[in-house]
Give the backbone structure.
Amino acid sequence: MPELPEVETVRDGLERHVLGARITGVDVLHPRPVRRDPRGPEGFAAALAGRRIEAARRRGKYLWLPLDNGDALLGHLGMSGQLLVQPRDAEPERHLRVRLVLDGTGRNTEGRNVHFVDQRMFGGLSVSAGGAELPAEIAHIARDPLDPEFDDDEFVARVRRRTSGIKRLLLDQGLISGVGNIYADEALWRAGLHGERAGDRLRAREVRDLLGHAREVMGEALAQGGTSFDALYVNVNGESGYFDRALHAYGRADEPCDRCGTTIRRVAFMNRSSYYCPRCQPAPRRRRATG
């Protein structure tokens, strides 16, 4: 699933290519990607027709395009969603689900289209009424660590009040957004912390150090266009990211740790996988039974 660096790369591409353009037509080629819009496919298309794109914003893994009437086009890429800026005469992609036809104004001077392509169709688009500043649908999602208004002190305090494992806390979008499985494993490897270390067993310094590593790894990934393990994640120009070549833990089961040479292990975690070095990231001791 695309995480913060990948979604931010897409947001930046949309900002560079479509700001100021007016949506002159909307083709919903499959109803599932607009299933969260109560208007239905026809109402979704009608709500966007004639609207001008004012900005491109992000909260965690969600994107939205504020419109000139105060509404917003809200999107989530899910597992395999792509937002591509394409020439008018481009051949439709095999899994093209929604097409926005844009006029040749603003930064979209060539009159390109925006294609929402989604093979697995876990992602989606909807129109958020009055959502230009922040769609109500995602107001519950916490800020991400690259957000200048992210509150480090509050994050540290909240983590240290929780008994859940620190990896589970990193994936809690109500606590900190944008961090997914890949960058959680990488930040934990850099910090030398096992993902099962309980939040209330961590020192404040350890939580701050981990937060710093999360920022570093996502910043480095962003500079390389994100992480692409297959063709499902690409930027708005259809290009892959290259950060997978710099990963130290995620996806490296049975390979030597870059820091100590110990074999990286893979374990099941929340219907996914976790990767860690058993020497650099020792497992926590079990809590003693009470009573």
In short: The longest strand covers residues 96-102. Residues 220 and 243 are 8 Å apart (CA to CA).
